[in-house]
Amino acid sequence: MSNPLQQLKNYGQSVWYDNIDRTQLISGDFKRLLDEDGVVGVTANPTIFQKSISHSGAYDEQITHLIGEGKGASDIYEALIIQDIRTVADLLRPIYDRTNMLDGYVSLEVSPDLAHDTDATIAEVRRFWKMVDRPNLFIKIPATPEGIPAIQAALSEGINVNITLIFSIQAYRDVTEAYLSALEERNANGKDISHIASVASFFFSRVDTLVDKLLDDKIKATSDSAEQQKLHQLQGKAAIANARLVYQDFKKIFSTPRFETLKHSGARVQRPLWASTSTKNPAYRDVLYAEELIGPDTVDTMPLETIENFKDHGRVALTIENNIPLAKAELEMLETVGIHYDAVTQQLLDEGVQKFADSFHQLFQGIEEKKKAIQGQQITR
Which domains, ranges and CATH numbers included, belong to the chain? Predict the structure, then answer.
């Protein structure tokens, strides 16, 4: 009998693994996720690579070889991640072929230092796309104002894009507009659009982490028990409410005559992807986000812990469209208590870019430290 994780596909949702670690690739643990658990894709980001490369000895042999070639930290980093990305892409290729390009993708993110530089982002997207040379690759571009034109440019060139760090509904609309405009440009020029894939990645735990903190501050600032209760009732609600309203936008946008015209030429919908779906607050159910965001044409990226938890005790049902009026009311209520949606989502975007940049720099520092350690071992031999 299938477990809850495998049952998600019956509701039109794909499960992707939110991690790349060479140790798992070598041990076969990664392949078991594909063969036994129904995982059909992979995402990664600078934080994931920073943890994997800094804390695993599986990269030491390649680092030693690259040091011998006189490579610096930047070249070493790219060589390490490109090898892992290609390995994962090749393992996922049968899924990509079997699902007719729906799943079987792996994502590689551009440098977060380029998040506010359109031209430099486009250049790195092209370079990574050529270096990896796999059709089932996504290049991840953040949904910053400068990232939006880079997203459209990449898609118009036939490059698959995973748009990351989306928090607001307006950012989502900007992302879908970039996708549709890119497809229209290619279609008007007689270029194939049937092979182009894109996902729009919404982040969850970070939303509730910030909003809950703001609510806590307001709870502490009032002695009115009724007000405190009202504020308590809003905790843990913002992220799911936001996603459910985004999904309503998704359905509207991809049922318009505009998209139908593109669909006749082979275009695919740009699926919403739920990212950061592990709960950070121990007071919440450990599979809360995974359970409350199930619906057709969606992707849920899960870290290993969430995969194991959902496989064990996840409850599977069509939930993404539950209580839409309540979702609207909850976001409106946050406004009435002084927690402003636009300010929250802007802060989350700024912090998200900075956190990835910090991980990126820590990764380079970790490579330098490994480089010095390996060179020190070579000297003492």
Answer: 4-207+259-321+355-380 (3.20.20.70)
